[in-house]
Amino acid sequence: MQNIQLNPVGTMNQLSQLEVDLLNQSANGELYKLFRNCCLAVLYSGAEIDNSESIFAPHRDFNINLIIRERGVKIELLNPPDIAFVDGELIQGVHEHLFSALRDLLYTGAKYSAQSLNFPSDSNFITHSVFDMLRHAQAITCSAELNMVVCWGGHSIGTVEYQYTKEVGYQLGLRRLNICTGCGPGAMKGPMKGATIGHAKQRYKIGRYLGLTEPGIIAAEPPNAIVNELVIMPDIEKRLEAFIRLSHAIVIFPGGAGTAEELLYLIGIMLDEQNAKQVLPIILTGPEQSKEYFESIDNFIGATLGPEAQSLYEIVVGDANKVARIIKQKQKNIRHYRKEVGDSYDFNWSLKIGPQFQTPFTPSHENMAKLNLHFEQPKTELAAALRQVFSGIVAGNVKAESVKEIEEKGPFQLTGEPKLMDMMDKLLESFVQQQRMKLPGSNYVPCYQIKK
Question: 296 with 308: CB under 8 angstroms?
Answer without folding.
Answer: no
